[in-house]
User: Which sequence fits this backbone?
């Protein structure tokens, strides 16, 4: 799909900050990008990572829209005030982290919002990176109305009892039996969170429950190898997995 657009076709995009009802129906800021054209288009929820509701998330939303997806990136840190993404995400971390219940509520509200849009096709997927990958897996298991999910190097899916907190009271792996949609996982074999051993455990649990999943694991890549603004970027592995992610969402979100 990469670089395969027809040069003779119209291309346009609208991207803006909106508000929608999130957790407990509280108004929540979100970044919405969508293609301009006949549609209807499949939709994606892009869950922000721990660096915050940042510029990289906005650029990634627009990249998905360039490939034909309505993309909603909710500000899951909204309750911690406003400022730079780093300032707000640090405030969330200092408070013990964004509660899983809050993120799941924001995602459930996002599903309802996206399915109400006249230019959507009713199909919604979810994707996240880093802590957002963990949240994407949680959403895949706990949020209704989703059709596909991608976990990009989600750390903390496997968690020991002593690692659980009031904000994160259940290890996401313990919800695996509830997973009812196709899942893709994208991981670097040099990552330390999740480690290769933790990804093995995750895969074993998915196999145990007979789930529909596919994992792509890359050598010479660690945590965050899509992040082209940092030293972790690995262009070959990033482009290969981007292609696989786009194909996966097209397959499962296009009727």
Assistant:
């Amino acid at each position: 799909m990469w670089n395969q657009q027809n040069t003779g076709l119209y291309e346009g995009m609208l991207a803006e900050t909106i508000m929608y009802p999130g957790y407990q129906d509280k108004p929540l800021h979100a970044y919405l990008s969508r293609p301009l054209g006949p549609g209807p288009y499949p939709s994606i929820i892009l869950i922000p990572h721990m660096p915050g509701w940042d510029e990289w998330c906005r650029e990634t939303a627009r990249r998905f829209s360039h490939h034909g997806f309505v993309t909603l990136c909710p500000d899951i840190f909204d309750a911690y005030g406003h400022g730079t993404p780093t300032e707000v995400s640090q405030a969330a971390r200092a408070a013990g982290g964004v509660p899983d219940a809050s993120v799941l509520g924001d995602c459930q509200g996002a599903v309802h919002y996206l399915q109400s849009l006249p230019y959507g096709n009713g199909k919604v997927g979810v994707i996240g990176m880093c802590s957002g990958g963990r949240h994407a897996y949680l959403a895949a298991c706990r949020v209704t109305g989703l059709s596909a999910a991608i976990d990009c190097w989600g750390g903390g899916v496997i968690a020991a009892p002593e690692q659980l907190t009031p904000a994160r009271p259940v290890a996401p792996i313990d919800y695996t039996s509830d997973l009812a949609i196709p899942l893709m996982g994208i991981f670097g074999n040099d990552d330390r969170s999740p480690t290769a051993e933790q990804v093995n455990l995750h895969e074993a649990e998915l196999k145990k429950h007979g789930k529909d999943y596919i994992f792509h694991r890359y050598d010479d890549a660690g945590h965050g190898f899509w992040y082209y603004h940092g030293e972790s970027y690995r262009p070959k592995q990033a482009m290969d997995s981007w292609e696989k992610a786009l194909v996966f969402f097209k397959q499962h979100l296009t009727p």
In short: The mean pLDDT is 96. The CA atoms of residues 95 and 212 lie 36 Å apart. The first strand starts at residue 13 and ends at 21. The helical segments are 55-66, 85-94, 100-116, 131-142, 196-208, 235-253.
